[in-house]
Every structure is written in structure tokens, then in C-alpha cells.
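Re: the request from the purification team.
They wanted to know what the chain is likely to look like in 3D before they choose a buffer screen. I agreed to run a prediction and write the result into the notebook, where they can find it.
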Amino acid sequence: MTKKVRGRKRVNKSLAWVIAKQTTQYATYLSACLKDSTKPGYIKKFGIGNLKIYEEKWENPIEYLKGLLKEAPLHYEREDILKLINEETQQEDVKSQVFEEYPGIEIVSELFKHFDLFRKSNYDKNNDLNLLVHNQIFQDIIKHQSMMQTYLKNNKKDGLAFYKELFNNSLDYIYENKDQILFNLNEAIIENKDREMDILWFDTTSFCFDDIINSESEQSIDLNNNQFIVGMISDKNGIPIHYKVFKNKIVDSKALVSSVLEIEKFYNIKNITIIVNENVTFDDKDAKSLEEKGYKLIFTNSSKETIKDINVYDRQWKIKNNISFWKENLQLRPIDFSTEKQVLVHIALCFISLVMMNYLTYKVNATLKPKQAITREDIIRAIKEVWTNKEYMNKILVKEIPNWNEARDIYYKHIKLIKTTLDILKAN
């Protein structure tokens, strides 16, 4: 029996199969050629027939054949190549699909992989977790759909789909390991020397979801307790560090104390200055308890003279903007959820997206120092506006059409900036 070798991995990246064509007075003929990109000419060249024959089967035969031979083993001879092509031409149905590919989402996904948030995980399906977050970021930014909508609509990206088991298992893991994931995220930023935590900002937002209850759910959310308060702590560069969810009607000093003690425990942060938003109702006893632990509290409704040394008003707008950006651009307010667990995991994923956007914005400006500083809104707009239509025939890429035009040129430039920044980050 002949040993099956189709699919053997390549070892020489300079070698590749290409399609060559030769036109005579009678017809145009195609050849499958093995080429070394570092040398002229071909190592192997096999005639594979008349172009017209392939045009009767496929709309873009040369591109289709290129895709078909892309992964063909380098040792193939003419009969192997013809057999491979024949297997495709014998298919009665040619399935054509067109996908929109967003390079900006791929960059964010690569940043996520670089941070390796699920390291130290005992979960044996990290790829599922990466896929879940990748798709959620995609839906939050591009489609503004919730995690459950992503599953229900069976949206696909790069040919991958959510399955119920993947969704539920990944959801459970994130719900149970949220703190470790946030710790890993913070640790990755510190490793890149991009955290400044001598001064922290505390702000809050609230939302309720009384219109998204699924009465058929066994774990439906309590209608009498449907308001969530989210407290968020950010660093000097406006990059969020941590968040905490409270089931209260108002934000009081106990929420801040609880948040501060939590980040002290998780991140070993002590003796810092905390800028507190004016909407937090504060009790003198709580303030004293934090000060006794070495924390300094400054409220944004204090006189400017009190806080001018740390330029709090120069940075406060960035922190306030985190909340509005989180809600408006990352769809913090969930849709189509029926359980509290789903809501809390959705908040966690949105927070991760917010950290990614803020960190990427900071890193582009700090690394490349463009004449016009790039903003999060610039990045979001570029992610939304830049895509390539990719046409596949029987899962083989045959055509790529970028959506570039003069009006979108600025977005393409922004994508190039964030791609360059990511490449530099990964190289260090």
C-alpha cells in the first residue's frame, strides 16, 4: 500500500507551487510549477491543460488553481498534481462564498493572543476561549450584537462558528476565572512597562435591563433587582486596570473602599493617590479608613488649587470618556440575555475590549509619535471602515477586493499605524 503523504508540512518556505501560462496561436496552456523564490526559473514544471477547459468549470481558474496547489506537498509529480486537480473538477457543485475580512479586528485579536490572557489556565480548550473573545470583540465593534445574538445567529468569521457547548463552557470559565484573567491582562501591560499606577482614577456607570428578561429561562434575572453599578479604576495613562460590579441603587464610598481593597489584594498596589469622581457619595469614616491604610483621596469637585500639582483636570476627561466609550462603542448594555451570569460575562468581555482599545491607542502614540495623535475613536472607525471582500470557491481563496477609496485612505493609514505598533510590540 502506498503511504499517504498528502498534507505533509513544508520545510522550505522559499519553495512554492505557482501557476504559469503560455499562449500560442491556438490556445493558452497552463502549467503547475515548483519555484524557488530566491532563484530564477522553475525546479519542476508540469503541463496541466488548456485554460479554456478550466474556465468552463470555474470563474477565476488561475486563482482557484493557485489556491488549490498552495498546500500541495513539494515532492508531488505530474500525476499527483493532475489527480489533485481532477478531484476538484469532478465535484458537481462548486460552492462560492464571500466573506468580509476586517484587518483591524485581526490586529486586536493578535494583541489579545500576545497578551495570552488564559495562561496558567487549567481549561483544556484555550482555543475556544480565544475564539469566543475574538468573535465577541468582532460583534461588539462591527455589528453591535450581544454574545447570545452571536451564538443564535451562528455568525461566522474565517469559517468558524459558535456551538452551544463551546459557548456555555467558555462562558462558565470566564465567569469563574474573571479575576485571574484581569490579573493576567494587567501583568502583560506591566511587563511592557506601560503602567503608571501612582495615581488612579475611580469612576462609575449604571445600567438596568428590565426589557431583556427571558421569562422562560430557569435562571432569569430578578426584575426587582435589575440595576447594576459598574465601578472602574484606571491608571495615569487612562488604561483601565480593574472593575467591580455592584447591585446598588447609588454609588457610595463603600463601593470605592471595596474596589480599592480588591485591587490591593489582586495587584499588590499600596500607598497611592485615588481621584474620585464627584458623583460618589462619600462617608468620612470610609475616607478615614482608606487614609489610614496609606491612600490619599482627592475628589474632582475639590478646588483646582488643591489638585493642580497632579494635573487631574487634564486627565479626568480621559477617564470620564472611558465610561461613555465603553457604553456607546463597546455595547456595554447587553442585549438578549436571560441570566445574570451572561450579563456579567458580557461586562467582562466588554471591559477586556476597552482595555485593548485604550492600550492600543496609548501604544501607537507612545511608540510612533504621529504628528496627529490617534484616538480610540480613530481606531474604532478604522476597524469598521477597512475590510476586504474575499471570495472562496470550495474553501479556496480566488479573489480579494479591498474596499479602499480616496475617502477611506485615512482609515487605511490608521490600520497601518496600529499594525506597525503591534509588530514592534511583538518583536520586543
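For the purification team: The first strand starts at residue 15 and ends at 23.
Please add any questions underneath this entry.
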